[in-house]
Write a structure and sequence with these properties.
The complex is a heterodimer of chains A (about 220) and B (about 220). Chain A has about 220 residues and is mostly helical. Chain A has 8 helices and no strands. Chain A has helices spanning about 5-45, 50-65, 65-75, 85-110, 115-125, 130-160, 170-180, 185-219. In chain A, helix 1 packs across helix 4 (about 85-110). The longest helix of chain A is centred in the first third of the chain and has 40 residues, at about 5-45. Chain B has one domain: Orthogonal Bundle (MetI-like fold). The relative contact order of chain B is 0.14. The N and C termini of chain B lie far apart (about 60 Å). The longest helix of chain B is centred in the first third of the chain and has 35 residues, at about 10-45. Classes of the chains: A mainly alpha (about 220), B mainly alpha (about 220). Chains A and B meet through helix 2, helix 3, helix 6, helix 7 and helix 8 of A and helix 3, helix 4, helix 8 and helix 9 of B.
């Protein structure tokens, strides 16, 4: 049933593709985090316009399927003067914009949990608003929401399978190519699922350990 | 770059049908997923230790795999076992399969939230296990897990877009098809985004309304 020579032959190809998958999801997560800092601080700002803008961003990027966002970027970028967007750039853009909205919701919760006395004290000490956010509030928010952030990374790695649609040679795409060359569909896709599980299950367990650790430290 | 919505009105019938396919795959998959999830959660609750462990492994494996990969496994890998499904059937079954483990986790947390004393009281009154499940645990936990279920439903609504990859004629497939044929990406993609935003917004509003209603019922 399981063709071992084919499997061994496919391993180097899958290894290379794994790097692409990790690269896109980690870059997407990193840029998404930066976007999330911006959006969550907009949502907690005093100006109603900023709040509304932040809210709309989250509403749109959480309300539209990632696949559709990918297609929008892929098809519309050339029309808005960004011709020849490489699949890698399009994929990372879509993943960052989308994960930015999800991470923003997580960070907002963490930021809101910080007592306002801290930022007032920092303000009196002469710290600027960005400095307060980056050096006092954000580190605490990240610490308290770390389990959710790890969970978000797992979701993003899974979501990155969709970038195969815009032609990036990620894990899913390479497995698809392998399967269509020798018709061993089930075997290749089973191996594919196995590789995703090998990354995601340890990450999930790590997240759960962090959560327990956090609960203990709070108790 | 022009903006001309006539391409939408000209294809209104096809788009409406695609919308119905999206709704059908979403709701049929979710209902099956909810039932399977409840079954898994109940088995984990009442089953023995080995069964619990087995289901735990199953849940972790499905949760570690992208939805697209599950779709490929069933739709393209299925025929190796003589499992030949139409795209639509495969889509509905995959949504049910994928969501069942998430729903199971939601139900499990709900079961855990119902105080043990109530189960013991029910047992003393001579209720059987199924009766306890149906009459005591489910009504109470449904209130608690309603937000999580609604959230999962919105996630599944968005996952139906992925079905376009295995040629299910749902919204994403049909609208991007029209877009590539007539080169009207802006109009078709705009309508596509609005359709999903509407579906998600309606679902979460209905969820909040339901939560409110159930909340009133509880306070009485």
């Amino acid at each position: 049933m399981f063709d071992w020579p084919t499997f061994l032959f496919s391993l180097p190809l899958l290894g290379k593709a794994l790097l692409i998958t990790l690269q896109t999801s980690l870059l997407g997560n990193a840029f998404g985090f930066v976007i999330a800092i911006l959006i969550s601080s907009m949502q907690l700002a005093k100006m109603p316009l900023l709040r509304r803008l932040g809210g709309s961003y989250i509403f749109i990027f959480r309300g539209v399927p990632l696949l559709v966002q990918l297609l929008v970027i892929y098809y519309l970028a050339p029309m808005f003067g960004l011709p020849n967007l490489s699949p890698m750039v399009a994929a990372v853009m879509a993943l960052s914009l989308c994960s930015g909205a999800y991470i923003a919701e997580i960070l907002r919760g963490g930021l809101m949990a910080i007592p306002s006395g801290q930022s007032e004290a920092a303000h009196l000490l002469g710290m600027s608003r960005p400095a307060i956010l980056l050096r006092i509030e954000l580190p605490q928010a990240v610490q308290s929401t770390l389990p959710s952030l790890v969970n978000e990374l797992v979701l993003l790695i899974k979501a990155s399978a969709l970038v195969s649609v815009v032609g990036l040679a990620d894990l899913t795409r390479v497995a698809q190519n392998l399967a269509s060359s020798d018709y061993l569909f089930f075997q290749h896709y089973l191996v594919l699922a196995g590789i995703y599980c090998l990354i995601n299950i340890p990450l999930t367990m790590f997240g759960r350990r962090l959560e327990r650790h956090l609960e203990r430290s709070l108790a | 770059m022009t903006f001309d919505l006539s391409i939408i009105t000209a294809n209104a019938g096809a788009i409406w049908n695609a919308f119905l396919v999206t709704i059908y795959t979403w709701l049929a998959g979710s209902v099956l997923g909810l039932m399977a999830g409840l079954l898994i959660a109940a088995l984990m609750l009442f089953g023995g230790r080995p069964l619990q462990l087995l289901l735990r492994v199953f849940i972790e494996l499905v949760r570690g795999t992208p939805f697209l990969v599950i779709l490929f496994l069933v739709y393209y890998g299925g025929p190796s076992f003589g499992l030949r499904l139409g795209a639509m059937t495969a889509g509905v079954l995959c949504i049910a399969f994928y969501s069942s483990v998430y729903f199971a986790e939601i139900f499990r947390s709900g079961f855990a939230a119902v105080p043990r004393g109530q189960l013991e009281a029910g047992e003393c009154l001579g209720l059987g296990r199924l009766q306890l499940l149906w009459r005591v645990q489910l009504p109470q936990m449904l209130v608690l897990i309603l937000p999580a279920i609604v959230n999962m439903l919105t996630i599944l609504c968005k996952e139906t877009a992925v079905l376009s990859i295995i040629t299910v004629p749902e919204l994403t497939a049909v609208l991007t098809g029209i877009g590539t044929r007539t080169f009207t990406f802006i109009e078709t993609l705009l309508v596509l985004c609005i359709a999903y935003l509407l579906l998600i917004e309606i679902t979460s509003r209905a969820g909040r309304w339901l939560e409110h209603r159930v909340g009133i019922y509880l306070q009485r």
